[in-house]
Amino acid sequence: MKILILALLIALSPTRFVQAAPVDSKMFSAGGIQVDVTAENASKAREQALQEGQKHALMAVMSRITPDYIVEQLPELVPDDIINFVQDMSVSNEKTSPVRYMATLEVRFNGDAVRDLLKSNGLPFVRTSGKPLLILPLYRRGSSSRLLWEEDNAWLRAWSNRTVESYMIPLIVPMGDLQDSQMLTAEQVVKGDLPAVLSLAKRYEAEGVLVVEMTRTGSGFNVSVNAMDETTASEIKNFSFSVPMGKNTATTYANAVRSVVERLERKWKEDQMVQFNDTTSLVVMVPVSDIVQWQTVKDRLSRVPIIGSYTLQAARAGVLQLTIFYAETLDRLQNELKKRKLLLSPLPSGVFKLQAFERLADASAPAKPADSMVAPADEPAE
User: Fold this and answer.
1) Per-run averaged pLDDT (10 residues), the chain, 382 residues
2) H or E element that contains 209
3) What is the C-alpha to C-alpha distance for residues 153 and 365, in angstroms, rounded to an integer?
4) Domain count, the chain
5) Fewest beta carbons within 10 Å, which of 129, 224, 342, 345?
6) What pLDDT does residue 160 have?
7) In terms of residue numbers, what domain contains 326?
8) Distance, CA of 215 to CA of 242 (rounded, Å)
């Protein structure tokens, strides 16, 4: 019966499912764009300022999602071209005179249109944003004690007051209210109490957790960033770095926050870059017994950066048949799927089997939490 229902839903659905990669709205937006133009009259000054602001915003987005050298390789875009990429725009702090116009713009672009532009020009880019992550800012003082929700945790305040944006990976900082403190303690974080941590993440609709710990050293601070859950750890490697003492501790904390965000964004950009010059296809068989299992596979497929689209062809005897269209190499496809708890393995018939880890009979048991959350960084401290 479940398979019949599944087959019926597939039959009533479009044959082609173009994978709209999960994208946070910030990924294709640029804010704080200052414009100041003088022209023959205020109307012309405003028109020119908005055009220049939109171009500046588009270049900011391009610089964010492409390699540094790519912007110079883009074709020259005139205002009539750029306006086709704009999804919407907000204007604030407007000031005008008879011949001058000043304002601050935030421009949001259509992600599909921008990606199509880069694809058509054979240029690599970051296609997917990361999943929303909950930040747990631990502050370590002395030899062992750690602060999380305490009022004197200035590291938490620095994250709450941060001004640097996270465009590629949505970062969520908890409020630190009574409910937070009742749901999770610093000791639970240190001991790796994953159920308690994920319960708090659920409150904030986060899909993963990063522990960002700051420790005072003799000449400054050390910051370590560690993923708590397995899925986040597969996408973001642990790292650590040192921060020298600045003019004051508040400035030092703010610089440390900025450095964490910039490193996360940079690593995501390096790891998720895709070259869509050509695409290859392969046929996969997906064992599923109900809609929930299929939805799990779909959600994970949507996060694979090199999958352009897939065709759902048939459902029979508990198996779905798909054709997946992907860029680059089969090795990378298998690695990207594995990061998202999907195993792609060849079958003697020449097609492939795609399974969620949960369905693997020989899947290894989940790793037990370590005694301490402060694990050695996968990357050397800088």
Assistant:
1) 50 42 74 95 96 95 88 81 94 96 96 88 87 94 83 94 91 95 95 95 95 89 94 90 87 95 93 85 90 87 87 85 92 91 92 84 41 40 44
2) strand 208-216
3) 36
4) 3
5) 345
6) 95
7) 275-359
8) 9
Tell me if 378 sits within 8 A of 239, measured CB to CB. Answer: yes
Question: Which one-letter DSSP state was computed for residue 26?
Answer: G
Per-residue pLDDT at 190: 92
The per-residue pLDDT for 25 is: 67
Buried b (16+ CB within 10 A) or exposed e, 165-196: ebbbbbbbbbebeeebeeebbbebbbebbbee
pTM of the full structure: 0.78
Q: Please give the full DSSP string across 122-151, using - where no structure is assigned.
A: T--EE--PPPPEEEEEEEE-SSS-EESSST
Q: Using alpha carbons, list the distances in angstroms from residue 330 to 83, 206, 254, 269, 294.
A: 37, 31, 42, 21, 22
Structure tokens at 65: 């999602």
Q: Which residue has the tokens 């950009």?
A: 269
Is position 368 within any domain? no
Structure tokens, 342: 């999907």
Q: What distance in Å separates the CA atoms of residue 75 and residue 316, rounded to the nearest whole number? A: 48
- Provide the greatest CA pair distance for the chain: 76
Q: Quick one: pLDDT at residue 22?
A: 52
CATH number (domain holding residue 320)? 3.30.70.100
**Assigned token pair, 131:** 């999943």
pLDDT of amino acid 326: 92
For the chain, the distance separating the N- and C-terminal CA atoms, rounded to the nearest angstrom, is 58
Query: How many CB atoms within 10 Å of residue 159?
Result: 23
Residue 184, pLDDT score: 96
Q: Which two tokens stand for residue 3?
A: 């398979």
Instruction: Assess whether 192 and 79 both reside in one domain.
Output: no
User: Domain for residue 138, yes or no?
Assistant: yes
